[in-house]
# Entry
Amino acid sequence: MENERRDDSIERRIRAMCTRVQQIQQEGLYFYNIPIEELHGGARVLVNGREMGMFASYGYLGLLGHPRINAAAQRAVAKYGSGTHGVRTLAGTLTLHRELEDMIAEFKGAEAAVTFSSGYVTNLTTVSALVGRHDYVFSDKLNHASIVDGCLLSGAKFVRFRHNDMNDLEEKLREAPTTAGKLVVADAVFSMDGDIIDLPGVVDLCRRYGAWLMIDEAHSLGVLGKNGKGIEEHFGLEGTVDIKMGTLSKTIPSVGGYIAGSADLIRYLRHQSRAYIFSAALPPAQAAAALEAFRVIQDEVWRVEALRSNAEMFIKGLKRRGFDTMKTETAIVPVLCGTDEKAFAMTREAHQEDVFVLPVVSPAVPEGLARLRATVTAAHAPEDIEHAMDVFERAGKKIGVI
# Structure
């Protein structure tokens, strides 16, 4: 039976994806899963023996490889070893974990915080732990897949509202029973478009309709706000988000995710979240790296301003060259190409001129909206950005994007 060729839906699904990948590879247009050999500062990498400018990094403040953060990770391994004794609830909690969670709570202006093994798991477990049957969860249509999966797993009534459309959200909230539990979830910065949620509008609606508010700050921690503290600081609305979610693998150069909020909320998650109860604790080196990264952000606030200046330069420069960067206001800068084929071709041209950037194509984005999802960091020098823009311009003219 094992050697017989099956022809069921599972086999067809696998075969279709493999065929698509193989075709793209044969055409020399496959740019995913490329091994990076070395990091040369925050803005350059070594790939296949060639030094390239990195314009696909989530390390927005250029902290990857920071000597203080590396040293903290090394000290943790020397003290605790490479792992823990199990899950957090049983024998896996270290004093280091509590120090990290106290730091996150302080940084986010919350009473308490809890950490998880990944950002994806954080959204999945938090949403599914908070709402269930007879509850309603409202999700922006462009929310990250981890939020969508958490909503589906929860069993709650899953209601999606038009992207950043407060009128549509209000209409959906109005239709929900007044006695039902209601949770509104949105990205702070949307990972494909780079635009920012209308936090004042969402906060107002949640207050008027008695809904809890959860904001995913995966791409806004270290990016928004004068001190990089995120979307509440950006809008001057500190303390208005009930459930503050973030990751430890983007601006923070480690791994994991967190929830910050009231002491009762965090106590509840420690005893109700399946991902907390049944997943291994963060390794000591990763917890220590994350903890030191928050300290570095506080000590080196100049990085936040450098990132903001670089993002503004990148967006304005691309627009002047004729590119459509959609509605981005942040370090995530979509370079709209149109078709998947043009996005792949643009990537090929950029790589040939040593600019490391990656395409986002359907079904990750709607057909016709394929793009390069370029990012800038605080580590980029102005000449790095100018070079990348010049490369994109030459490629765009050659491919017919501009």
Observations:
- The first strand starts at residue 38 and ends at 40.
